[in-house]
Amino acid sequence: xxxxxIPSNPEKVMVIRDVVPNVITTLSxxxxxxxxxxxxxxxxxxxxxxxxxxxxxxVALTDDVKAKVASLGEVKYITALDIEHHIFLGAWSQAxxxxxxxxxxxxxxxxxxxxxxxxxxxxVFSPSxxxxxxxxxxxxxFDYEYVSAHQxxxxxxHHKPTHTLIQxxxxxxxxxxxxxxxxxxxxTSGILTKIFGSLTNTYGNGQKRLVWYGSxxxxxxxxAKSVARINGWEFERIIPCHGDVIxxxxxxxxxxxxxxxxxxxxxxx
Length: 269
Prior knowledge:
Layout: H1 2-5, H2 10-13, E1 15-20, E2 24-29, E3 32-33, E4 37-38, E5 41-47, E6 52-56, H3 63-72, E7 74-79, H4 89-95, E8 100-104, H5 107-113, E9 121-125, H6 136-139, E10 142-147, E11 154-159, E12 164-166, H7 191-200, H8 206-215, H9 220-231, E13 237-239, H10 250-257, H11 259-267
Parallel strand pairs: 6-7, 7-8, 8-9, 12-13
Antiparallel strand pairs: 1-2, 2-5, 3-4, 5-6, 10-11, 11-12
Helix pairs in contact: 9-11
C-alpha cells in the first residue's frame, strides 16, 4: 500500500521551499490516493525563536532534507497531524531521538497493529486528557486545537509569529501544483482527479459540502466548537498537506469552507 502512496524517488521530485526565510520551510511531494488521485503531500518545518525545530506531518527524510534540517537547527518536536499522516514518523524519530513526538489518540495503537517502527509518543491528544501545554518555548509560539470530531482525528496548529495555520486534512487546496511540479505530470490530469478536485478546491462550494456531509459530520456540534476556536486565531496563511499553500487571505478561505459549522457554533453559544 505504501508503495502506491508515495514516490519511489522522493529526492528527485521533492520541492524544498522557504515559505518564510529562516522560519518556515515546506517539503512538498507528489502523493497518490488509491494509486490514482493526485492529492500531493507536504511536511512543514518551523524554526522557533529559540532555534528549536518543530516538524509537522513529516515526509521522506532524504539527504537533501537532512541537510536542510542541519542548516536550520535541532529537531525538538515531531507531530503527526492526524492518524493518516504518520508513514515517516518512525524514520524521523529514529534520526532525531531527542525530539518529542506528538500525535492524536488511536495513532500509537494503529502503528502497533500495522507493525510500524516503535515511536515513543510524548503527547497524545485526546478529549478525555486534553493537551494544554507542551513546553514553554513551544506554547509561546503555537496555538493548537484537537479536532476530535474530524474523521481523521485532526490536530491544527497556528504559528502566531507568522500568522500561519498548519494542518493536514481539515482543508485541502486543490490543485497540488507545487507538489507535482518536478514530476513532469500535470497535477490536474485524469478524470478521477478532476472529480476529486471539484470537491477540494477553495473557490467553489464543493469542499464546504464535503466537510459538512463528510469529514465534519460525525459530531457536528463538537466539530463546530473546534472550528470556532480556530477561527478566533489571527492567521493569514494556510499550509495544507494536500494542495498548494494559501499565502494570503487564508482566514477568508477558512470562513467560507467552514461557514455552516461556524453558523452552528454561533447558534449553540
